[in-house]
């Protein structure tokens, strides 16, 4: 993961920044759930100075990466040790949850469990869920990307009993977590096998 987050992942920063109207998420922090060492949150905080981020992860990842980044934007990025399967902190009023390369590590049943926890905040605070993850576009994709995702699908299944998903599969999974949880926007940037998807309670 360290090698990935310091090399390939940087390619995604610009794609992600352009795919979402980040400036609209000022009513509360954006929570980067499963955010690892916080490299994405720190990049977004650098680009969008009006935003605050909370990086939640099972493992305390704070010190090593943060120490390499200037104080601004680091002051707007805080860290919480949080298990995604546990209730979210009561005093947290998030404008959005952001999950990058998290759900593809888990089978539907586990993702739905996580989503149901987020739904309670979405209902209360109107929070959005933004996700950047692999999204198989059958027949519409350069064969290279289809190969990458199908390979990853087998890899995820062998390691975690998880899988890669098509857009209708993502939508169905979210709708199972809550009947009013709908896809608002999906961006499939050219040059990326990962899509950026935005879900809200309608
Ligand atoms: C594939 S990494 C993605 C990291 C980061 N979002 C990125 O794109 O660079 C998955 C992350 O989920 C975290 N994770 C795994 N199980 C978790 C759990 N139960 N609760 C919270 N985070 C978890 C891992 O520690 C890891 O940082």
TrEMBL record:
Coiled coil: none
Name of the protein: O-methyltransferase C-terminal domain-containing protein
InterPro entries xref list: COMT-like (IPR016461), COMT_C (IPR001077), SAM-dependent_MTases_sf (IPR029063)
Gene3D superfamilies referenced in this protein's UniProt entry, alphabetically: Vaccinia Virus protein VP39
Keywords of the record: Methyltransferase, S-adenosyl-L-methionine, Transferase
Pfam families assigned: Methyltransf_2 (PF00891)
Domain of life: Eukaryota
GO biological process, alphabetically ordered: methylation
């Amino acid at each position: 993961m360290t090698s990935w987050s310091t090399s390939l992942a940087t390619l995604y920063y610009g794609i992600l920044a352009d795919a979402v109207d980040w400036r609209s998420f000022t009513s509360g922090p954006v929570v980067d759930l499963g955010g690892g060492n916080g490299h994405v949150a720190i990049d977004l905080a650098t680009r969008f100075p009006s935003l605050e981020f909370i990086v939640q992860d099972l493992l305390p990842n704070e010190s090593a990466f943060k120490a390499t980044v200037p104080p601004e934007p680091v002051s707007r990025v805080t860290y919480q040790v949080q298990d995604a399967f546990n209730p979210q902190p009561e005093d947290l009023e998030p404008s959005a949850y952001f999950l990058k390369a998290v759900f593809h590590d888990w089978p539907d049943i586990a993702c739905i469990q996580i989503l149901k926890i987020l739904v309670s905040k979405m209902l209360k605070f109107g929070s959005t869920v933004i996700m950047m993850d692999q999204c198989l576009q059958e027949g519409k994709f350069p064969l290279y990307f289809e190969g990458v995702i199908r390979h990853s699908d087998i890899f995820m299944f062998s390691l975690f009993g998880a899988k890669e998903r098509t857009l209708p599969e993502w939508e169905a999974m979210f709708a199972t977590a809550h009947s009013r949880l709908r896809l608002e926007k999906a961006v499939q940037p050219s040059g990326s096998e990962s899509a950026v998807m935005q879900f809200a309670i309608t």
